[in-house]
Amino acid sequence: MNLSVNFAGIDIKNPVTTASGTFGSGAEYKDFVDLNKLGAVTTKGVASVPWEGNQTPRICETYSGMLNAIGLQNPGIDLFIKRDIPFLKQYDTKIIVNVCGKTLDEYIEVVKRLAEEDIDLLEINISCPNVKAGGIAFGQDPELARQVTDKVKQYAKQPVIMKLSPNVTDITEMARAVEAGGADAVSLINTLTGMKIDINKRTFALANKTGGLSGPAIKPVAVRMVYQVANAVKIPVLGMGGIQNAEDALEFIMAGATMVAVGTANFNNPSVTEDIINGLETFMDKNGVKDINELIGCVK
């Protein structure tokens, strides 16, 4: 039975990774899940300098999910290279580094620093607000998204995955834009913008007022968008959004995702990624599927 996939030219032993921002850089989970079993670990977003993130409260529960407005708090690229990459290199798993920035130059600075590091793929978070364009996210403007992709590709030594925001009118337009910019792959979906109000305090549940909705509530939207994008571009898709078990992961794979990322589910079941890998094997064995690649995009 073959669970391995080729993603953007990188051979990966199984199609399961973690979603950025939900797994740290793996150290927090090492006592709960065997990192050697994962196809890849996707790190929390890293910026050129440390970011403090948003004011608290910045997480709240919702029906079938959660809202977060962490604000991409991270220790910056210096500490990341010194601490997090050496930690992950101890394990037999691929390393996908999520990169964030508020300007094009900030993205490029991080990508340059990572060029000589022993990592496997870059995931560029274009849901960051572009401070020079009035705060609009890079991933909400096709031309901005194409430009970021093009510039990043000029400096990247690793394959580049562009992480798409679902908060757009047409997700395929964004996917085609980053493909035109030279992206090696796309990942989607990032969180949907949402809001919760505390009726007893008569105020917003999050200090930021709005936050990113994740968890099972967004899965049908994510599956739809992955299907649309997989059929609109020629580059591979990393699918995510509300995956809780192997059945969910298989929906994304059959919709056209070559790999899947598990996010919010890590919080209530730290070993969920390992459970999903085992579940994929069980499904394939039960249904006589010898190669996971037979299932990628099988639903048209």
Q: Brief description of this entry?
A:
The chain has 300 residues and is an alpha/beta fold. Helix content is 29%, strand content 20%. The chain contains eight helices and 16 strands.
Keywords:
single chain; 300 residues; alpha/beta; TIM Barrel; 8-stranded parallel β-sheet; 4-stranded antiparallel β-sheet; 8 helices; 16 strands
Question: Could you describe the 3D structure shown?
Answer:
The chain has 300 residues and is an alpha/beta fold. The protein has one domain (5-53, 72-194, 213-294): Alpha-Beta Barrel (TIM Barrel). The chain is 29% helix and 20% strand. It has an 8-stranded parallel sheet. Strand 5 (59-62) and strand 6 form a beta hairpin. The radius of gyration is 18 Å and the shape is globular. It starts with a strand and ends in a 14-residue tail after the last helix.
CATH architecture tag? Alpha-Beta Barrel
Number of domains: 1
CATH topology: TIM Barrel
Number of helices: 8
Structural class: alpha/beta
Layout: helices, strands, pairs:
Blueprint: E1 5-7, E2 10-12, E3 16-18, E4 40-42, E5 59-62, E6 65-68, H1 77-88, E7 94-99, H2 104-114, E8 121-125, H3 142-155, E9 160-163, H4 171-180, E10 185-188, E11 192-195, E12 197-198, E13 203-204, E14 210-214, H5 219-230, E15 237-240, H6 246-255, E16 259-262, H7 265-268, H8 272-286
Parallel strand pairs: 3-16, 4-7, 7-8, 8-9, 9-10, 10-15, 15-16
Antiparallel strand pairs: 1-2, 5-6, 6-14, 11-14, 12-13
Helix pairs in contact: 2-3, 3-4, 5-6, 6-8
